[in-house]
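Board notes, transcribed. Complex of a protein with manganese (II) ion.
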Amino acid sequence: MPSAFELPSLTLSTGSPSQTDIDLLVLPLVAGHTERVLERLGPQARQDVAWAVERGAAKAELGVVHLTTVVDEGWRPRRVAVVGAGTTLTPERELVRRLASVAGLQARQLRLGRVALDLTPFGDTTPGMVAAAAEGVVTAAFNHGHLKSRDEVFWVTAASVIVSAEGPALQAMLDEGRIVGEAVNAARLLANEPGNHLSPQDLAGRAVDLLSGGALKVRVLAEDELAALGMGLLLGVGQGSERPPRLVVCEYTPAGVDPKAPVLGIVGKGITFDTGGISIKPADGMGRMKDDMSGAAATVGAMRAIGRLGAPNRVVAVMPLAENMVSGRAVRPGDVLRSASGLTVEVNNTDAEGRLILGDGLWYARQLGATHLVDVATLTGACVVALGMQITGLFARHQAWGEVVRGAAGAAGEDVWPMPVHEGYRDLLKSEVADMINSPGRAAGAITAALFLEEFARGVPWTHLDIAGTAWSDEAKPWSTKGATGAMVPTLVALARGSAAAWPA
Ligand code: BES
Ligand code: MN
Ligand code: ZN
């Protein structure tokens, strides 16, 4: 079977493109700066590209690719592609990442194994541009069809980034971008795995494999330990499945860290398959619910990168894992479950299971000493209605902490948008028989889910990231493929690696 990803070697270079021994040279075209592309080319290709720009076949629109048929004499690259690169010479991280992905995906499509992305048309190369380029090239080296038995996949074997001047700072950023890109790919592979290949126990095993052998501590709690901790929410959601729930805990502790320093707690939703339970989902589209562990997958990916790159902060990650199934043992609507925190929940809808397992997860992260919480979850269809598939919903009770998380997303080049945790809707959680219900209904569904979670994060700054829309892509773009996206891996890495001086007390 083909592999899910095979990474090219990654190098920096400052050479002239004409003398670089590669198969495909990619040049970014910035609006109003055609000359910066032309001056990198030989006389004949220059003429062809100038003509293409004049005719609109090559343009600055991101993702538009013009492949020249002309290659000048004495030129070592076999092909040259001019790729639209937007309107600014100081591009944001997301743009460079997309540009690099276009380069990688184009090379694969053209079956050209050695590709160079020339960043010099932007002017001076910044460290951020190099990291983004590495990330983009690496995430382009991903194959969603790794379960096909007869698929031939073409891989890029060598990728180089042509920069204005080499140096140790840029080299370090190349490695950083590669590690973040690999973490994104690891998360995507997990999220793509079908439910039959990935039980809670399987996912726990994969997490252990990805997280052990370095700076991280990782352990898996089985049912008896979950019962001893009183995790009735996680156990209740998992009780309908033949395949019992697990909880994965991963900790990163920087050497010599002050024991009183802030501790980041990351909690990721890990429903390996969500049928909805007795409140069963409609058949249409249910298959996508194999990705309902994308929050846990993003957490695994991020922790792997944090372990490899290091971070100034202590980080504890908690991943509650369960399969939400229908059976004679499944939790019923109306059942009351007792959480580890002591709060009781009337399960009025078994399809609102994510908030249940996260409730116990958030509580446990606090037990482990987390002073600042962030959770990541494919939590509500309502968030998809509100923000679509390109924007992650950000919900924060503690506004300053929400701004820190938002800043990390901005630095990582991921789109998030703040949503209100509106106090007035808290009444909707009221239950006649327990402390609260889990499913207050359609209105403001993403917000009431956040209000439910907050009950388990009380007292510490907490931010919730709803990735129901962004974890999966239904549409291929020149810079991305269909399927799991690895959303929020770069954001979590940036958050953990940022200075806690900016975190609110
Ligand atoms: N995993 C789903 C949310 C989801 C929906 C993720 C679409 C990705 C795409 C979640 O467990 C769920 O079923 N939520 C319900 C909550 C409702 C019962 C209150 C929903 O959104 O319909
Ligand atoms: Mn559900
Ligand atoms: Zn779910």
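The two ends are 51 Å apart (CA to CA). Residues 206-285+298-502 form a domain with the Aminopeptidase fold (CATH 3.40.630.10).
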